[in-house]
Write a structure and sequence with these properties.
Blueprint lengths: L4 H5 L4 E2 L13 H14 L3 E4 L11 H15 L5 E5 L3 H13 L4 E4 L9 H14 L3 E6 L7 H9 L3 E6 L4 H13 L5 E4 L8 H5 L5 E4 L6 H13 L2 H19 L5 H12 L16 H21 L2
Parallel strand pairs: 1-2, 1-8, 2-3, 3-4, 4-5, 5-6, 6-7, 7-8
Helix pairs in contact: 2-3, 3-4, 4-5, 6-7, 10-12, 11-12
């Protein structure tokens, strides 16, 4: 239920750090700590560690635990830390307990691995995960985990489930979910979880979804924060200009490669001066010319901020 402590602390721009790897492919905790620390210092409202952008799929349980603990230490209580949890129910519970031991404030429950479950199975999976620890759970809707409004209502009734992050982008479905939950006198936190959420930020706000995750914050926090300010204050002119000059071209660039929602972001962090290493298999590095295009986009976005004083 949203009366839980975490719900009241998730207000602002949500930071999904990449996970840093050394040249030999091992975990680089020092660089990861620097990345998290820089994000919190820049104004992140929360740290979502070891989630999609953080390559949860590529981490061992031990690496996951160490990263979550590092994020908790670097955040130092200034902002909440939410950790990913996924795969089948048994493994999701194991990751959830590791996150709890590491001091996380909540969980982002990613879709179950591989199988396409029915609604009863999804409901059982998420409620069992929520019951396994004291951590609050945000359910991530995408891919093979698409909820009906009735299932969303059932999740809203469950102890420990406080939110729904939408990575599908079906606004009709999201409006029906929001309406169904509200009609039952219940509440959930809703998040826009598309890969570049800023592009659809105005549309999601129209149905009451104001929270969103920002991959751009990883490598250009100034642009991400300027957009967030403009969106939340109703500065439609700045929103439109940033969409036209930066966010729409970014989405079109991201669509030019498989896995670019992660690998292109990570490459941009490296080009920004922090060597977070490459991505682990099965992801591949983005084409160098695409990274160059992204660098130019960031320059154009920052020039716009300077021009407008945003």
């Amino acid at each position: 239920m949203t009366t839980a402590p975490l719900a009241g602390r998730l207000d602002g721009l949500l930071f999904f750090p990449v996970t840093a790897f050394a040249p030999d492919g091992s975990l680089d905790l020092d660089t990861f700590r620097a990345h998290v620390r820089a994000g919190v210092d820049a104004g992140a409202a929360a740290v979502f560690a070891c989630c999609g952008t953080g390559e949860f799929h590529a981490l061992t349980p031990e690496e996951f635990r160490d990263c979550v603990a590092a994020a908790v230490e670097e955040s130092a209580g200034r902002v909440p830390v939410v950790a990913g949890a996924g795969y089948g129910t048994a493994l999701a519970v194991r990751y959830a307990r590791l996150a709890e031991e590491a001091g996380a404030d909540g969980l982002l429950a990613m879709p179950p691995y591989l199988v396409v479950a029915d609604q009863a199975g999804l409901l059982r999976h998420y409620t069992e995960l929520a019951a396994a620890t004291s951590l609050d759970v945000i359910v991530y809707q995408r891919d093979n985990a698409i909820l009906t409004p009735a299932t969303a209502v059932a999740l809203a009734r469950a102890d420990g489930i406080i939110g729904l992050k939408d990575g599908l982008g079906d606004l009709d479905l999201m409006q029906r979910i929001v309406s169904a939950v509200r009609t039952e006198g219940l509440d959930l936190l809703y998040f826009n979880g598309l890969p570049t959420a800023e592009l659809t930020g105005a549309a999601y706000r129209g149905i009451g979804v104001t929270l969103y995750s920002s991959a751009v914050f990883c490598f250009a926090p100034d642009i991400a924060l300027a957009f967030h300010r403009a969106l939340t204050t109703g500065d439609d002119t700045t929103v439109d200009r940033l969409v036209d000059v930066f966010y729409r071209p970014l989405v079109e660039l991201r669509a030019r490669g498989r896995g670019y929602a992660v690998s292109l972001v990570k490459a941009a962090v490296r080009r920004g001066g922090l060597d977070v290493g490459g991505v682990r298999p099965p992801l591949s590095e983005p084409a160098p010319e695409h990274v160059d295009e992204l660098v130019l986009l960031v320059e154009r976005g920052r020039a716009l901020l300077k021009e407008t004083g945003a």
